[in-house]
Write a structure and sequence with these properties.
Strand content: 15-25%
Number of strands: 14
Helix content: 40-55%
Distance between the termini: 28 Å
Oligomer: single chain
Number of helices: 16
Shape: globular
Largest sheet: 7 strands, mixed
Strand order of the largest sheet: 4-10-9-8-7-5-6
């Protein structure tokens, strides 16, 4: 039987029928996890964050649902840098980058990103999602082929489809299947694109194998390391660096909304290719630039990561402890290798009940189910931050174990 969100995605006789069906279903029989999608934060993300529940109740919750892995949102240097820039540049950009939207801070950030990725140049996008759409639809055209890991982020698939190129999904983390697809491809323009860290499970793409294939079959390779930069690899330089092939990846893509806790995306590579995006990536050409104050915060966050290595060290300590303790208790974390720690449940009803019980116990969590993953592989999606204490994570482990037994996710 299809899940609620799968059923409401089907084609109807009229465009409004899908929306009407969803509204009716949510009124009459909402899924158990529905309230968990409607929490309201009453302050910025911290290890313990004040949250308003749909019932109106306000409670302090242990935050395991934020992508702000290093939790620099509250770092005094970051706040000070943003406040100073706000006084100088105001609250918004008011223009696309090619017109009046580029400040000296934007130029400084692009130079810093190119240096961080070991490339000639970089370009900033107003959002991580729109940047992927802009890069893929800007670079590729009908007559090209884009080879996508089947578990790539939705933004990569949306950008690939918008390009008009032939989209070729290959089996998740399966270079052998990718090679079979590449052998059959007749297009002269070929791009392999993969997440570096897969956002629903925390696994790492085999970037070294993808480099071998891109060289063998004369392709370009793009790695979207949204969840890997400043988290994975030596000094947080990303998944490609973790595999020792950073200088062989053609396009490095990342976001500021994960480890750095801000907003926006970027792409880094050869200067000519990056300059091409300034004119053909419509999601930057037709979008207002990121506000300069936000850019100042991102720049300062990058400096903090470089100058205060304890943030990354604490994150690594916390994620290793948390995953190890969960696995000792028989909980399947899907072999995660990042700060994203999934808990496989496999049944949406159990998942909803488990998540709501965690909210009651004071733990904020996310879920992964349709359309992000197949409902039969639904899961909790837990994120560890550098600022969590081991005591907080230990409490979370004990609570998850107790509730997982209660709802028969693991044997009691």
């Amino acid at each position: 039987m299809k899940s609620l969100f799968e059923r409401c995605f089907q084609t109807g006789e009229k465009l409004t029928e899908k929306a009407d069906l969803l509204a009716q279903e949510l009124r009459s029989a909402p899924p158990a996890y529905f309230d968990g999608l409607h929490m309201t934060l009453l302050e910025g993300v911290k290890p313990v964050t004040k949250v308003r529940l749909p019932s109106g109740e306000v409670k302090d919750m242990l935050m395991l649902g934020s992508n702000s892995f290093l939790n620099l949102n509250w770092h005094p240097r970051v706040i000070e840098a943003e406040c100073k820039a706000l006084e100088k540049y105001g609250s918004g950009a008011g223009s696309p980058p090619l017109y009046a939207g580029t400040t000296d801070l934007h130029q400084e950030l692009e130079e810093a990103l190119a240096e961080f990725c070991g490339t000639e140049s970089a370009i900033i996008f107003p959002a991580g999602y729109s940047g992927n759409v802009g890069v893929l639809s800007g670079l590729c055209r009908p007559g090209d082929a884009i080879f996508c890991d089947s578990s790539n982020h939705a933004s990569l698939y949306d950008g690939a489809r918008l390009s008009g190129a032939r989209v070729v999904p290959y089996l998740h983390l399966n270079p052998a299947h990718l090679e079979r697809c590449l052998k059959q491809a007749a297009e002269p323009g070929k791009l392999i694109v993969t997440d570096g860290v897969f956002s629903m499970e925390g696994s790492l793409a085999p970037v070294d194998e993808l480099v071998r294939l891109k060289e063998k079959y004369d392709c370009m390779l793009m790695v979207d390391d949204a969840h890997g930069f400043w988290v994975v690899g030596p000094d947080g330089l990303g998944t490609a660096s973790r595999f020792g092939v950073r200088d062989k990846v053609d396009l490095h893509y990342g976001t500021f909304s994960k480890a750095l806790g801000s907003v926006g995306g970027f792409c880094a590579g050869k200067r000519n290719v990056i300059d091409y995006f300034r004119y053909y990536a419509r999601s930057t050409f037709f979008s207002s630039a990121i506000p300069a104050a936000t850019v100042a915060a991102i720049l300062e966050s990058m400096r903090v990561v470089r100058e205060e290595p304890e943030h990354l060290q604490n994150l690594i300590r916390n994620r290793d402890f948390f995953q190890s303790e969960l696995e000792k208790r028989g909980i399947n974390t899907l072999n995660s290798r990042s700060a994203i720690i999934p808990v496989l449940v496999g049944d949406e009803e159990k998942l909803g009940k488990l998540q709501m019980a965690m909210f009651e116990a004071g733990i904020f969590s996310n879920i992964g189910t349709t359309p992000a993953v197949n409902a039969s592989k639904c899961r909790l999606r837990l994120n560890v931050m550098a600022t969590h204490s081991l005591e907080q994570l230990g409490f979370a482990v004990e609570t998850i174990e107790r509730l997982a037994k209660q709802f028969q996710v693991i044997p009691s």
